[in-house]
Specification:
2 copies of one chain form a homodimer.
Chain A (H helix, E strand, L loop, with lengths): L3 E4 L8 H13 L13 H4 L3 H5 L14 H11 L1 E7 L6 H12 L8 E4 L9 E4 L2 H5 L4 E5 L13 E3 L2 H7 L1
Parallel strand pairs in A: 1-2, 1-4, 2-3, 4-5, 5-6
Helix pairs in contact in A: 4-7
Chain lengths: 171, 171
Amino acid sequence: MKEQILVDMDGVLADVYRQFLAYEFRETGVARQLESLDGVIEEDAFPGFHRHVNSAGFFRTAPKMAGSVEGLKYLNGKYRVLVVSSATEFRLSLTEKLDWMNEHFPFISWRQIILCGTKAPIRGDVMIDDHPTNLNGFDGRRIIFSQPHNRFANGDGYQRVESWQQIMRIL
Amino acid sequence: MKEQILVDMDGVLADVYRQFLAYEFRETGVARQLESLDGVIEEDAFPGFHRHVNSAGFFRTAPKMAGSVEGLKYLNGKYRVLVVSSATEFRLSLTEKLDWMNEHFPFISWRQIILCGTKAPIRGDVMIDDHPTNLNGFDGRRIIFSQPHNRFANGDGYQRVESWQQIMRIL
């Protein structure tokens, strides 16, 4: 049987940093550079964090991560893919995330999507995630997808990737 | 550490049969008895099944199962409870189910809720569910909550309960 791989949405399939920066720019007129956010958790990096993630459309209109469609198609052929997203904290995100997946990744069925509050009880052989909390609670192969907030995270057995191109090379 | 228990929503916390019968009665004026539906899967038992589950409000206004609030409070003190619901098939159900949980079971946090397409990858020590498909894919203690469609299901190691009162006696 194929191995099961858990793929995160925000910060892996969805480029939420670009979305936060766009929301911030619309409000303040200031365009910050990603590099200035290295090592800062998202809630601290974006003063409007809670307002943005609870506003209609934030998740629905998030840009895709570069290379994610080709990359997820590749994984979907080689592994049993589950897209697993922390979502129950933000009620509007639920339907928006499902619609977003259907628009951008229509080859992923509803059977392959899990929207949750914690990923700890979810089994798999490989996990791709940008949040150390999720990776640390996982007992399979841990792949950390580089995002500014996790730049200096160096957890047990992490394999760091910078892009979907790199994922396709190592998996 | 406390054992982890996976509790299903539809047919365990939510009395979806009463909801289907109410929707049907409003449309046809015919009030059927539950007993006539023994052993029939829900899609066949209710001709309007797909229309109802995809209509706004169906899950949001579903009645609670008798004794479920007291029962889930009891479990929540004794176990690590996860409420796990098959939901991604029906896009409107996602937010409605979260809102429904918050209204009727406010002591369950968003961290304890999983909305999914399949329950197979979710780990736990005990599962309470009305669907044999979910129980058969689970490797812990399997408790089947009696509902008309599962009346004659007799899977490997099932422990059958007829009510939340009975759950509180055996767990």
